[in-house]
Amino acid sequence: MEFSAEQIADLINGQVVGNKNITVSGLSKIEEGQPNTLTFLANQKYEPFIYTTHASIAIVAKSFTPTKATPSTLTLIKVDDPYSCFAKLLEVYNKMFEKPSKIEKGAFIAETAQIGKDVYIGANAYISDGAVIGDYTKIYPNTYIGDNVKVGSNTTIYPNVSIYHNCEVGSHCILHAGAVVGADGFGFAPDEKGEFQKVPQIGNVILEDNVEIGANSTIDRATLGSTILRKGVKIDNLVQIAHNVEIGENSAMAAQAGIAGSTKVGKNVLVGGQAGISGHIKIADRTQIVAQSGIPSSVKKTDTTLMGSPGIPIDDFKRSHVGFRRLPIILNRLQAIEDKLK
Q1: Contact predicate 198/217, CB 8 Å
Q2: Is residue 90 predicted with pLDDT exceeding 90?
Q3: In CATH terms, are 3-95 and 102-317 the same topology?
Q4: Could you count the other beta carbons within 10 Å of the beta carbon of residue 196?
Q5: pLDDT category, 322, cuts 50, 70, 90?
Q6: Which stretches of 184-320 are assigned E, i.e. beta strand?
Q7: For 261-281, how does the pLDDT look when each residue is reduced to its tens digit (9 = 90+)?
Q8: Quick count: other Cβ atoms within 10 Å of Cβ 139?
């Protein structure tokens, strides 16, 4: 499918500089731009590539003024924010590849399940008793939807996702391949012989609207009550969220991070990759946790950036790191002083 510069400008409220009738049928990075593709310039360090790119259309900021001639084959579309406008176009482009509404052969749907309108359910998907699937939702092949699970409208559940019984997924959510929602929390109690006895996990998981879960991430069901990811939470691949955790609105976690049980994370919190957060603590709103940091106790002050393990304010960590790097020099000087004293 092809789009003209004029059509694209109309979509993103842009101004065409060049041939408004030129068309594109694909997307490319500016440094690898090919004819008949659309690219964008948002970071000024990539500006040199706009003078050599072979792309046909480039989205640029309204403030962009070329310092030399751009290729004669290149049409510019000027907008307020090139990155967000390109993201909007990516979304439109992505929708072109979505599955059409249908129920494929081999999908199992229990008689008591409720299926909304214009839903896609792929082959070998399993929809259990009492499940409710909202309108326009897409469930890809080999996905398991457990008993009494509720899934909102316009949600996309990719292949091999498992959602255990009684869990709830909101509208406009995305669950990537291999994600597991509602597996048992890690609850065991040793008996008098020191043998672990399993503590039944009878709660559930609630994902509110606009939540995205990365591939192979796991969100455990609560022992009692609910594990909750509030509106707008974004979880990367390979993330572990334990039982009874609550994550506030618009917080995000990068890959391989983990949160132990019953911790409460505030709003707009950012957690870097491989960071670990202990259980039964609270993390204040707008906390930022640098990658590979460990947080063993509550963070009470908002707008704090923590680094290291145990995590401390980032400025303190940087000063401490300078001191740590100087330790060999300090030790040598100390040895020299001791030798003189002797």
Answers
A1: no
A2: no
A3: no
A4: 11
A5: confident
A6: 188-190, 196-198, 204-207, 212-213, 218-220, 226-229, 234-235, 240-241, 246-247, 252-253, 258-259, 264-265, 270-271, 276-277, 282-283, 288-289, 294-295, 305-307, 312-313
A7: 999 999 999 999 999 999 999
A8: 29
**Are the C-beta atoms of 34 and 54 separated by less than 8 Å?**
yes
Distance, C-alpha 111 to centroid of its chain: 34
Contact 39, 55 (CB under 8 A): yes
Confidence of residue 196 (pLDDT cuts 50, 70, 90): very high
Please state which CATH number belongs to domain 102-317. Answer: 2.160.10.10
CATH 1.10.600.10 fits 3-95, yes or no: no
Q: What is the DSSP letter of 299?
A: B
pLDDT by residue (tens digit) across 93-120?
887 778 889 999 999 999 999 999 999 9
Q: Which of 172, 243, 280, 321 is catalytic?
A: 243
Catalytic status, residue 280:
no
271 exposure class (CB count in 10 Å sphere: 0-12, 13-18, 19+): buried
Helix H or strand E segment including 127: strand 126-127
Task: Place 324 in a pLDDT band, splitting at 50, 70 and 90.
Answer: confident
How far is 190 from 118, CA to CA, in rounded Å? 50
| Residue spans per domain, the chain | 3-95, 102-317
pTM summary value: 0.85
